[in-house]
Specification:
Structural class: alpha/beta
Order of helices and strands: EEHEEEEEHHHHEHEEHHH
Strand content: 5-15%
Radius of gyration: 18 Å
Distance between the termini: 16 Å
Number of domains: 1
Largest sheet: 8 strands, mixed
Number of strands: 10
Length: 283
């Protein structure tokens, strides 16, 4: 049986759909070596990912790349789930179309099938299964998303305010506080919202992948993070940050405020991230 790789004195953790690094901040604080994967390098002023970052579509990853990891965490994009949870006639019509009850509204450019809708979420568990098979032992994984995702991917095992968790959620979790995602103007938004603001003061030193590492296996679409102008696209041809617009029909996704709000979806509260990191850190 293989054991998680230790880099220096640090166990390896993988952060999928890492965004601005909410999970990663807690992992780093608990002594992990973290590699994040995202389709875009999010940098908004002083807010950016705080660890090693690999630009790659998570859908193209194979779990054998992570057979040496001690922990996998993920925050797949939640915009479509969030939108359909809103009490708007268009949102309800889109949800009904996925259920086969009506047609998609005019101008809709999002997913068209439930399989496409849940593909980013499902990829996490495929990657975990492949990693465990390659490692010969179980590698824990915790996936975060919004309450509205439950109608499409199944009931969450626990929630920390508006942060809902699936996967290997520990039996003992910290007391829920008023952890809530916020609108770009700072006002609160109920669970299920896609809006959030970046609250991290961390700066990241992004490391170039020169090959020979665990994450270069079967990964022809990777890019180095020092190429900040290179934004990887989803198979639809649109960046994750434009998903909100593909649902709502709005066309102002190029604003830094909108992109920053979208990127901060994955901004996990530090208390939650540190707790998960502590539970699964190898002795």
């Amino acid at each position: 049986m293989n054991n998680p790789v230790i880099i220096g004195n640090a166990p390896l953790a993988i952060d999928l759909y890492c965004g601005l690094g909410g999970w990663t901040e807690g992992l780093l604080a608990e002594g992990y070596y973290v590699v994040g994967f995202d389709i875009e390098h999010h940098v908004y002023g002083k807010h950016c990912y705080p660890a090693q970052l690999v630009l790659q579509d998570v859908l193209t990853l194979h779990g054998r790349q992570f057979k040496d990891a001690a922990l996998i965490v993920a925050s797949p994009p939640c915009q479509e789930y969030s939108y359909m949870a809103m009490p708007w006639s268009r949102a309800k019509r889109i949800a009904g179309a996925f259920r086969g009850k009506n047609e998609f509204p005019d101008g809709f450019r999002g997913s068209r099938t439930i399989h496409e809708l849940t593909a980013l979420f499902d990829a996490c568990f495929r990657i975990q299964r492949e990693a465990c098979e390659a490692a010969g032992h179980h590698i824990p994984m915790v996936v975060e998303n919004v309450r509205g995702a439950q109608k499409w991917v199944g009931r969450a095992r626990w929630n920390f305010g508006s942060y809902y968790l699936w996967g290997d959620v520990p039996a003992l979790m910290p007391m829920t506080v008023r952890a809530q995602k916020f609108n770009p103007d700072g006002t609160g938004h109920p669970p299920g919202s896609w809006f959030a603001v970046a609250d991290s003061e961390n700066r990241g030193a992004h490391i170039k992948n020169n090959g020979g590492s665990w994450f270069n296996i079967g990964s022809p679409s990777q890019k180095e993070t020092n190429r900040n102008d290179g934004v990887k696209q989803h198979k639809s041809g649109r960046a994750w940050s434009a998903y909100l617009d593909s649902i709502s029909g709005v066309t102002s996704s190029k604003s830094s405020a909108r992109k920053a709000a979208s990127a901060a979806i994955a901004k996990i509260p530090l208390a939650l991230a540190r707790h998960i990191a502590q539970v699964y850190k190898p002795a």
